């Protein structure tokens, strides 16, 4: 009985420690970016947009959330396959705001062995915490 009580106490302590451990904000932002990358490659604009705030502003406010959604849909109509390659991501978190900068290579085409179109972009994104989750608030990109 004594061993069972000790075992239960240790198990309870381990469960408590596991519940208290949280994924670092930087990792959560990187995970959101990876989910967005996967959404593009699986041609799922809804999943991509789930990581974007309602008040999103791109290219210095000349590009809103609806324009971003429309751009995604247009690319999926234009290309049978779309691939994304994201270079190293530099994340800086300050409270409930963050920035993430990266190089993004996009390619698309009819789904053959080689893509027909492609471009490399330098991308800087702004993020904010919304209900405990990180969402993309802003983005600026420039083709290399």
Give a quick summary of the entry.
The protein is α+β, with helices and mostly antiparallel strands and 144 residues long.
Q: How are the SSEs placed, and which strands pair?
A:
Blueprint: H1 2-20, H2 25-41, H3 45-49, E1 52-58, E2 63-64, H4 65-78, E3 81-86, E4 90-94, E5 97-109, E6 117-130, E7 133-143
Parallel strand pairs: 1-7
Antiparallel strand pairs: 1-2, 3-5, 4-5, 5-6, 6-7
Helix/strand order: HHHEEHEEEEE
Number of domains: 1
Q: Tell how many strands the DSSP assignment holds.
A: 7
Number of H- or I-type helical stretches: 4
How big a fraction of the residues is strand? 35-45%
Q: Biggest sheet, open or closed, and with what strands and sense?
A: 7 strands, mixed
Per CATH, the class reads Alpha Beta
CATH architecture: Roll
Radius of gyration of CA atoms, rounded to a whole number: 20 Å
Low-confidence parts, pLDDT < 50 over ≥5 residues? 11-20
General shape: globular
Distance between the termini: 69 Å
Walk me through the structure.
With 144 residues, the chain is of the alpha+beta class. It has a single domain (24-143), classed as Roll (Nuclear Transport Factor 2, Chain: A), CATH 3.10.450.50. The chain has four helices and seven strands; from the N terminus they run αααββαβββββ. Strands 1, 2, 3, 4, 5, 6 and 7 form a seven-stranded mixed sheet that branches. Strand 5 (97-109) and strand 6 form a beta hairpin. The longest helix is centred in the first third of the chain and has 19 residues, at 2-20.
């Amino acid at each position: 009985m004594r061993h069972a009580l000790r075992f239960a106490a240790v198990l309870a302590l381990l469960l408590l420690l596991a519940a208290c451990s949280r994924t670092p904000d930087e990792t959560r932002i990187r995970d959101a970016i990876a989910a967005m990358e996967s959404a593009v490659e699986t041609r799922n604009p809804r999943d991509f947009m789930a990581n974007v705030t309602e008040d999103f502003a791109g290219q210095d406010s000349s590009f809103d959330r609806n324009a971003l959604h429309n751009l995604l849909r247009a690319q999926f109509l234009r290309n049978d396959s779309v691939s994304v390659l994201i270079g190293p991501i530099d994340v800086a978190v300050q409270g409930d705001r963050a920035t993430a900068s990266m190089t993004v290579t996009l390619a698309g085409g009819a789904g053959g062995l080689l893509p027909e179109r492609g471009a490399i972009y330098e991308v800087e994104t702004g993020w904010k915490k919304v209900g405990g989750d990180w969402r993309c608030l802003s983005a600026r990109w420039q083709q290399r």
